[in-house]
Design goal:
Blueprint: E1 4-11, H1 13-17, H2 24-34, E2 37-45, H3 50-59, E3 64-68, H4 79-87, E4 91-93, H5 95-106, E5 121-123, E6 127-129, E7 138-141, E8 151-155, H6 159-178, E9 184-191, H7 195-207, E10 213-219, E11 222-229, H8 231-245, E12 249-251, H9 257-268, E13 272-276, H10 282-288, E14 297-302, H11 306-313, H12 317-323, H13 328-342, E15 346-352, E16 367-374, E17 380-385, H14 390-411
Parallel strand pairs: 1-2, 1-3, 3-8, 13-14, 13-15
Antiparallel strand pairs: 4-5, 6-7, 7-8, 9-11, 9-12, 10-11, 15-16, 16-17
Helix pairs in contact: 2-6, 3-4, 7-8, 9-14
Length: about 400
């Protein structure tokens, strides 16, 4: 049996207006895939009549439809009504739901508003899924093959309630139906190479792997390669990636660049220091966002002004006057100063022009000089240009600095 498909319908006008970020869909997709179910489509609709239309469309394509939201006590919570209309059944008040609602409010010394009884209305034939974290029960309506209707599961929208009910009721049943996961996904993270260049390197080799599904996702300074398939296909695809693009691979377990860097620094017993100007501490932030960073990162400087570069890192006034703050000699001196002051094993320094002002014909906005110093080794420096807005520039500079650290670390 292959991976089964399920469709998600997320309801709520607030999702479409951007007032609430739809984190439920990502969580559901990951959980379902891990037990052998693939989310084939996700639809977000506003409260109201659009819910029934979305249910009808999804039911024509899937064997299971999961619906989130619209189970509350207010007039715009109409998901239960849409389910009843889809199956052509009536609604009835469930006495056990009424009792639980009354107990819920009594335990909190609150009066129950009459509107809460809307949550006790259950479409005929639906099974109630009890909610231990809120008032809205979920519902599981068994499919009707003779009417080409799939199983439809209604779940509350708040993540705390949704996650509990999925783990308690939905995932175990779906896992039993699928027999467990039949495919696995590997997310290989690469850095230091563009999406089109990576595609040219590896796509032909991946295409030759039987039973493999793959795709690319580009972010600032990195590209993820998504591999899906049986274990034999994943093993072959991993070999292709290692042979053709091994120097750019950051991780094959989904770990991000800074996580891998902290992990490998710790494994080798190495420490790192940072000296930043144009990034304003972003490199240090990314490192210290990782749990365990305190074991490998002890010192970081943000030396925005020339005076700070002189006082804190020992960059000479003559060097700054001769070459300017944004120069390879100054970046190199910053890295070496950080290495000396911190007694770390590695140090990275950056100095650049983030813009929008401050550029010159010789050094336009987007210019950055990076340097990597290592104890007992030479200092490496380079000049790069990242045209774009201020945030884009800072993100790419920090990414390039961390990629350089990882390469130096791996080269020994």
């Amino acid at each position: 049996m292959g991976t089964c498909t399920v469709e998600l319908v997320n309801t709520g006008t607030e999702l479409l207006l951007g007032n609430v970020v739809n984190t439920n869909a990502a969580w559901l997709g990951q959980k379902l895939f891990s037990i052998g179910w693939r989310v084939s489509r996700q639809t977000v609709v506003p409260d109201g009549d659009a819910i029934l239309s979305a249910l009808r469309e999804a039911s024509a394509r899937s064997c299971v439809v999961l619906v989130t939201g619209g189970l509350g006590p207010t007039s715009d919570d109409v998901t239960r009504d849409a389910l009843a209309a889809l199956f052509g059944v009536g609604m009835k008040e469930d006495g056990e739901v009424v009792r639980r609602l009354q107990d819920y409010f009594a335990s909190r010394n609150r009066d129950m508003a009459p509107g809460n009884l809307r949550q006790a209305m259950v479409p005929e034939g639906a099974e109630v899924l009890w909610n231990s974290h809120g008032t809205a029960p979920g519902l599981w309506m068994p499919g009707k093959p003779e009417s080409s209707l799939p199983d439809v599961v209604l779940l509350p929208g708040p993540p705390r309630e949704l996650f509990f009910m999925m783990e308690e009721y939905v995932l175990p049943r779906l896992k039993a139906r699928s027999g467990g996961a039949h495919e696995r996904m590997i997310n290989v993270k690469t850095a230091g190479i563009g999406e089109s260049d990576l595609h040219e390197l590896v796509d032909g080799g991946l295409a030759a792997v039987p039973g493999l599904e793959w795709g690319y996702c580009a972010r600032a300074g990195e590209v993820d390669v998504r591999l899906i398939g049986p274990e034999s296909a994943l093993a072959s695809a991993s070999e292709v990636l290692q042979l053709r693009s091994g120097e750019y691979i950051v991780s094959d377990d989904g770990a991000c660049l800074e996580e891998v860097l902290v992990r490998e620094l710790a494994a080798k017993g190495r420490t790192v220091a940072t000296a930043e100007s144009c990034t304003g501490g972003l490199i240090a932030k990314r490192l210290t966002d990782v749990s365990g960073a305190s074991g490998v990162f002890h010192f970081g400087w943000v030396t925005y002004a020339n005076e700070a570069k002189e006082k804190e890192l020992g960059v000479s006034c003559q060097l700054l006057k001769a070459f300017g703050a944004v120069s390879e000699p100054v970046a190199g001196a910053m890295a070496e100063g950080a290495l000396h002051q911190s007694h770390a094993d590695l140090a990275v320094a950056v100095s650049g022009i983030a813009g929008p002002g401050g550029g010159t014909p010789e050094k336009p906005v987007g210019t950055v000089c990076l340097a990597w110093a290592r104890r007992g080794g030479e200092t490496l420096v380079e000049t790069r240009h990242f045209p774009g807005d201020r945030d884009f520039f800072r993100q790419y500079v920090a990414q390039t600095a961390l990629v350089g650290l990882l390469r130096i670390l791996r080269e020994g």
